[in-house]
């Protein structure tokens, strides 16, 4: 299963980041994303919410039951072993973090899930890779700038990277051309205002736009 998910991520590339959306709104959001061609969805743990362990696990479980293997569900902002375990029990297939925590990576691998920790510097990227990460999330990629990204990809071209934070239709082609395995995208695909107003058609069109860029890059 693990190899299949890695291939699925590399093929589909766009991971929609769902933060603070639950219940029927979440179902409608992911339905729109799926109709637009986005088949990877990350449900984040809201660390500022005391009930995030339960709420995120329930959201992941809801999506897994609703969409099966049509949309592959992962957990995001995973900071602890407890959160890895909760995500696993809920049916998540990949674990994404903003940081590199060897213990979180170890637990993820022991549960045969895909590990995608976050890193900022060359040292962090390589440390994450050596700890067993399947992909490394370069975060926040927009703050680093394209020049920085190009510079690190010379010596670190053997590690699969996911661009996250500030990825847009304008710069996604650049990241894919540089060889990124994918991108985590929040605002453009999971806009809270569009969700609140029920404008899921616009979300679907945004998803189509992003996936057209992916297909053009293949």
Question: How would you explain this protein's 3D organization?
Answer:
By secondary structure, the chain is α/β, with parallel strands linked by helices. The protein has a single domain (1-217), classed as TIM Barrel (Alpha-Beta Barrel). The protein contains 11 helices and 9 strands. It is globular and about 45 Å long. InterPro entries: Aldlse_KDPG_KHG, Aldolase_TIM. It comes from Enterococcus pallens ATCC BAA-351. This is 2-dehydro-3-deoxyphosphogluconate aldolase/4-hydroxy-2-oxoglutarate aldolase. Keywords: Carbohydrate metabolism, Lyase.
Helices and strands in order:
Blueprint: H1 2-12, E1 14-18, H2 23-35, E2 40-44, H3 52-67, E3 72-76, H4 81-90, E4 94-96, H5 102-110, E5 114-116, E6 118-119, H6 122-130, E7 136-138, H7 141-144, H8 146-153, E8 161-164, H9 172-178, E9 182-185, H10 192-196, H11 200-217
Parallel strand pairs: 1-2, 1-9, 2-3, 3-4, 4-5, 6-7, 7-8, 8-9
Helix content: 40-55%
Strand order of the largest sheet: 5-4-3-2-1-9-8-7-6
Mean pLDDT: 96
Strand content: 15-25%
CATH class label: Alpha Beta
Shape: globular
Query: From the 3D coordinates, which CATH architecture would you assign?
Result: Alpha-Beta Barrel
Detail the poorly predicted runs: none
Task: Give the C-alpha Rg.
Answer: 16 Å
Structural class: alpha/beta
In CATH terms, the superfamily is Aldolase class I
What's the end-to-end separation, in Å?
24 Å
Largest sheet: 9 strands, parallel
How many strands in all? 9
Helix count, DSSP H or I runs of 4 or more residues: 11
Number of separate structural domains: 1
> Which fold name corresponds to the CATH topology?
TIM Barrel
**From N to C, what is the helix and strand string?**
HEHEHEHEHEEHEHHEHEHH
């Amino acid at each position: 299963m693990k190899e299949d998910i890695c291939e699925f991520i590399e093929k589909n590339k766009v991971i929609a980041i769902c933060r603070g959306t639950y219940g029927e709104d979440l179902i409608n959001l992911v339905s729109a994303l799926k109709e637009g061609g986005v088949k990877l969805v990350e449900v984040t743990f809201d660390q500022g919410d005391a009930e995030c362990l339960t709420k995120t696990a329930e959201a992941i479980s809801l999506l897994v039951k609703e969409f099966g293997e049509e949309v592959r569900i992962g957990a995001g902002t995973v900071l602890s072993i407890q959160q890895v375990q909760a995500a696993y029990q809920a049916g998540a297939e990949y674990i994404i973090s903003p940081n590199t925590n060897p213990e979180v990576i170890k637990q993820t691998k022991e549960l045969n899930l895909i590990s995608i920790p976050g890193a900022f510097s060359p040292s962090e990227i390589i440390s994450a890779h050596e700890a067993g990460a399947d992909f490394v999330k370069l975060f926040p990629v927009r703050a680093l700038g394209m020049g920085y990204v190009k510079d690190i990809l010379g010596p670190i071209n053997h590690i699969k990277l996911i661009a996250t934070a500030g990825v847009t239709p304008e710069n996604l082609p650049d990241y894919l051309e540089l060889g990124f395995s994918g991108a985590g995208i929040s605002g453009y695909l999971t806009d809270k205002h569009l969700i609140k107003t029920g404008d899921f058609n616009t979300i679907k069109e945004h998803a189509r736009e992003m996936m057209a860029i992916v297909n053009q890059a293949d």
